[in-house]
Amino acid sequence: MVDYVAFLRGINVGGVTVKMDKLKKSFEALGFTGVKTLLTSGNVLFAAPAAGESTLVSKIEKKLAADFGREIGVLVRKVEELRRLAEAEPFGAIKLMPQTRRYVTFLSEKSKGSLKIPYATPDNHFRIIRANDREVCSVATLSEGGRTVDLMSMLEKEYGRKVTTRNWNTIEKILQASRAA
Questions:
Q1: Cβ contacts of residue 50 below 8 Å, gap of 6+?
Q2: Distance between CA 126 and CA 138 in Å, rounded?
């Protein structure tokens, strides 16, 4: 069995509500074990026989569409891959302040991004510090009136709509929960 995490796109925002207990039951009905939901943003830890990500994504998306009556985008990563990302300390050089937000955007397909990395907006309030074919690590320094929604739109424009972004704190919570399982 391999430990995975599924990141669901666009749930519990904009009026699209998915209850975590029902989400857990959907994953269990697929035969996955050790299913645990984290937060309400659509993070699901589960164990399954080793399989390709695309196979798991297809299986999960079909089940969720049947159970919730709408398409829900899913990205899957092995927990071990998240551990390696954390061990690489992608935000280690970032000076953290109360208005600092660290994000990881997971990509579903090879990036077609054209930005030269590292990248920073002219005001230096948003920086992409690392990008590869699997994820993009970015930092936002929120200013008066600054909104993370604008930053997410910029990431989708650059890397495509089949991405999902999580705050680094969420990734740390997922890794803590995976150790406790």
A1: 2
A2: 7
> What region, left, alpha or beta, does residue 82 occupy, with left being phi > 0 and alpha being psi -120 to 50 degrees?
alpha
Instruction: Band the pLDDT of 151: cuts 50, 70, 90.
Output: confident
- Residues 99-148 have pLDDT tens digits of 899 999 999 988 777 889 999 988 888 999 999 999 999 999 887 665 56
CA–CA dist 107, 174 (Å, integer): 18
Parallel/antiparallel/unpaired status of strands 119-120 and 100-107: unpaired
Query: CA–CA separation, 10 vs 149, rounded Å?
Result: 12
CB atoms within 10 A of CB 118: 13
> What is the C-alpha to C-alpha distance for residues 19 and 17, in angstroms, rounded to an integer?
6
**CB atoms inside a 10 Å sphere around CB 93:** 8
d(CA 121, CA 126): 6
Tokens of 173: 């919570």
What CA–CA distances, in Å, run from 13 to 10, 148, 158, 178?
6, 14, 22, 25
